Each structure stands twice: as structure tokens, then as C-alpha cells.
């Protein structure tokens, strides 16, 4: 495949995203007024509860089987590594750039979650359709490409709406709490004698019935902790983390949809009832696929509409934006080559070059559009998120092409 052909293949999907983003920006302008704040909020909820889950269910049910899932067992681990490495690099980035607290979740989220759904659905099959494709024959390559892209999208949805969602929501909640504290402090007035009382949490003090005394507990807790064994400390730490996890957030509609899609695809009797033109209930899957087709355009329109707010006023500094671009377009792809080569060396992945290509490109994609969906849900940092997404996707026009060429040359 020549340089020009590969450039066009990698350019088209990202260019489509940018063009639809421009349409969303146009529809959000005051003179047009079709995608104002209220309209974006409603559209975002429809994407969250209907479009994205339908897309996941239909694609997974059609392309994933028990046999393919066993063969592709390393892909979920590979995607998890992209999220863990990305979040670590994002955490370092916010420390270096001194990003405002309420925007830290957005920066870390953009470094963590990549677009492992719609871009792979376009890029990988398009590479297979080229006459001089390096990946087997066109029919076999296209079938495998759809299976790889479907599994990638499903696993990424689970990680995004559990791990990445937790990171973004944690900082969004902190901002809300910070604002509430500031408001309460501003509303309160000091007493006439100018004295202030220290407020202690219930876990650190105890008031007697007559209110005369405080019994301090930190010292006692500290002594008890010293007596605890190492394993007991780990168990206590895990319990503390689990108590802070909201299962309603972890099991978002997209996560539940991915689980349902896996069940339909893996369990043969259920698959025969729902999948295929001759299936008795194939109309259900067809309807889900029809609804799911609206997910990607809707998310991209919302991203473009939110961009209007970011262009008018943004608290995101240039250094943070450049840092996200560097993480997603330089550091992660380089680490992706190392991870894939190491996995192949130790026999964790087979000799299928297309499969290895997908594993590598999962490290090189721009941030997930769902980060914009999250910022819209939390009503925090929508404009800043859109600016980061705009610039990372603009850079991806070139970076995806160059990385794709390098990946193919390494796998040739």
C-alpha cells in the first residue's frame, strides 16, 4: 500500500469527525439556535440511554462468538493497559501543568480513554479493502476486522463507563463540593467576639451528653492501625475503595448493553433466535442496529456544539492541551509497539498480523468522544473538553497516518 493510499485511508474517518463537528458548531450558534444548552442536554441523555447501548448490542451480537472471544482473550488486557498507562501519564500531566482542580478529570479522562469504537470500524476494514493490503485476502480480512472492532468497542465501553467515568466524576464532584463550601463560608458571619470554633468530624471527636468534653480518637485509631497486620491493612483499604464505588455509575447503560451483547453472541441458542435473516426475532436486532447508527453522529454534533462555549471562554491552558496531544499521539503509540511486540514474543498473541495491527492502533487513536458526553452529563468543562477533542483529532489526521504506516512496516 502506497503512502498516498494509506494517507487517504487514515485521513477519511478523522476528517468525517471534524466535518460533523463543524456542523454541530454551526447548529449551536445563536443565530441558528438548534443545539442550545437545553437541546444538547436532552440529546446527550438520548445518546447515553438509547443510541450507544443499541449500537453496542447490535454489533457485538452479530460479530462476537465464543470461539472468537477465546482467540482474542488478550485484547481486553491490551485495552486495559492503554487505560492504565494513559491515566498514569494524565496524572503526571496535570501535576506538571497545574491544571485547575475541576478540569483535572477531563485532562486525565482524555489521556485515559481512546476512541476504540467508530474509528476502528472505519480504519481497519478500509485497510482490508485496499487492493494491495498487507493483511490476507479482502473477504477474510474484512470479517476479522469487524470482529476485532466490535470487541474493541465493547471492552472500551465497559472500561470507559466504569474506570474513566469514575476519574472524571471524582473531580466533577470535588468541584461541586468546593463551590458549596465556598458559598457556605461566604454566607456565614463571625461572632461578635471574633472567636471561631474548630469543627471536628464525627470520627475524630465525641461529644458527651452535657456537651462539656471532647474525647479525641485519632491517637486510638493510630495505635489500632499499628497493631494490624499487612494483609488486614490491604483488606481494609480495599473495603474503603469498594465503599466509595457507586454501582449505578459502574453499570451504566453502555456497560449493561455490552454484557447483553456478549451473552447473545456467545450463547448459541440465543444467537440463533436473534441473529441472521432467518432468525425468528431478527427484527429486534435490526431495530437495535437502526437506533445505534445515530450514536456516533449525535455524539460528534454535541462535541461541536460544546466547542462554541470553549472558543468564547476557556480555563484550559495551552500546555495542558499540548500535553494531551503528546500523550495520545507520541507516548502511548510508542508504548503500544513495545506491549504488542512483548506479547507476541511471549506467545500471548498469535501470528495474525491484522490482530497485532489492531492491538497497536488501539494505543494511537485520539480521545473517546464519550469524554465529551461525560462533561455534558456533569455540566462541567464542556467547552474545554471540546477544545481538547478538536485539537487531538486535528493532529490525528497526520499522526494516525504515520503510525499506521509504521505499524504495517513492522508487521510486514
Automatic annotation (TrEMBL):
GO biological process terms on file: auxin-activated signaling pathway; endoplasmic reticulum to cytosol auxin transport
Highest taxon in the source lineage: Eukaryota
GO cellular component: endoplasmic reticulum membrane
Primary localization class, coarse: endoplasmic reticulum
Compartment(s) where it occurs, according to its Swiss-Prot or TrEMBL record: Endoplasmic reticulum membrane
Residue spans crossing the bilayer: 6-30, 73-94, 106-127, 147-173, 250-268, 288-308, 320-342, 354-375, 387-411
Alphabetical keyword list: Auxin signaling pathway, Endoplasmic reticulum, Membrane, Transmembrane, Transmembrane helix, Transport
Membrane topology: Multi-pass membrane protein
Keyword Transferase among record annotations: no
Protein family according to the UniProt entry: Belongs to the auxin efflux carrier (TC 2.A.69.2) family.
Function: Involved in cellular auxin homeostasis by regulating auxin metabolism. Regulates intracellular auxin accumulation at the endoplasmic reticulum and thus auxin availability for nuclear auxin signaling.
Protein's UniProt name: Protein PIN-LIKES 3-like
Organism expressing this protein natively: Durio zibethinus
Taxonomic lineage of the native organism: Eukaryota, Viridiplantae, Streptophyta, Embryophyta, Tracheophyta
Designated gene of the protein: LOC111297939
Amino acid at each position: 500500500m502506497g503512502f498516498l493510499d494509506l494517507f487517504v485511508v487514515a485521513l477519511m474517518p478523522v476528517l468525517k469527525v471534524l466535518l460533523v463537528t463543524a456542523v454541530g458548531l454551526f447548529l449551536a450558534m445563536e443565530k441558528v439556535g438548534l443545539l442550545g444548552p437545553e437541546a444538547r442536554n436532552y440529546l446527550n441523555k438520548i445518546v447515553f440511554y438509547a443510541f450507544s447501548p443499541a449500537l453496542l448490542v447490535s454489533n457485538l451480537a452479530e460479530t462476537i462468538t465464543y470461539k472468537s472471544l477465546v482467540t482474542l482473550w488478550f485484547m481486553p488486557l491490551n485495552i486495559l493497559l492503554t487505560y492504565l498507562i494513559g491515566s498514569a501519564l494524565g496524572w503526571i500531566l496535570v501535576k506538571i501543568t497545574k491544571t485547575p482542580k475541576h478540569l483535572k478529570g477531563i485532562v486525565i479522562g482524555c489521556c485515559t480513554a481512546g476512541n476504540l469504537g467508530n474509528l476502528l470500524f472505519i480504519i481497519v476494514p478500509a485497510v482490508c479493502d485496499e487492493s494491495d493490503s498487507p493483511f490476507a485476502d479482502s473477504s477474510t480480512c474484512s470479517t476479522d476486522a469487524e470482529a476485532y472492532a466490535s470487541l474493541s468497542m465493547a471492552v472500551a465501553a465497559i472500561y470507559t463507563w466504569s474506570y474513566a467515568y469514575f476519574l472524571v466524576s471524582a473531580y466533577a464532584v470535588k468541584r461541586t463540593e468546593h463551590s458549596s463550601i465556598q458559598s457556605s463560608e461566604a454566607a456565614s458571619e463571625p461572632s461578635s467576639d471574633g472567636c471561631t470554633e474548630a469543627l471536628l468530624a464525627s470520627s475524630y471527636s465525641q461529644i458527651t451528653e452535657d456537651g462539656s468534653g471532647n474525647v479525641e480518637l485519632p491517637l486510638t485509631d493510630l495505635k489500632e492501625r499499628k497493631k494490624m497486620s499487612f494483609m488486614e491493612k490491604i483488606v481494609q483499604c480495599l473495603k474503603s475503595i469498594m465503599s466509595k464505588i457507586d454501582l449505578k455509575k459502574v453499570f451504566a447503560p453502555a456497560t449493561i448493553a455490552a454484557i447483553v451483547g456478549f451473552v447473545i453472541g456467545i450463547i448459541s441458542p440465543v444467537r440463533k433466535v436473534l441473529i441472521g435473516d432467518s432468525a425468528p426475532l431478527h427484527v429486534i436486532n435490526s431495530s437495535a442496529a437502526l437506533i445505534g447508527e445515530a450514536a456516533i453522529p449525535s455524539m460528534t454534533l454535541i462535541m461541536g456544539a460544546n466547542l462554541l462555549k470553549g472558543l468564547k471562554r476557556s480555563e484550559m491552558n495551552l500546555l495542558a492541551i499540548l500535553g494531551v496531544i503528546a500523550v495520545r499521539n507520541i507516548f502511548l503509540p510508542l508504548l503500544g509497539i513495545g506491549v504488542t511486540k512483548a506479547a507476541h514474543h511471549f506467545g500471548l498473541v498469535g501470528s495474525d498480523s491484522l490482530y497485532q495491527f489492531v492491538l497497536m492502533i488501539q494505543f494511537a487513536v485520539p480521545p473517546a468522544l464519550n469524554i465529551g458526553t461525560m462533561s455534558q452529563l456533569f455540566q462541567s468543562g464542556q467547552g474545554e473538553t471540546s477544545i481538547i477533542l478538536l485539537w487531538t483529532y486535528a493532529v490525528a489526521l497526520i499522526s494516525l497516518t504515520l503510525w499506521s504506516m509504521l505499524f504495517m512496516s513492522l508487521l510486514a
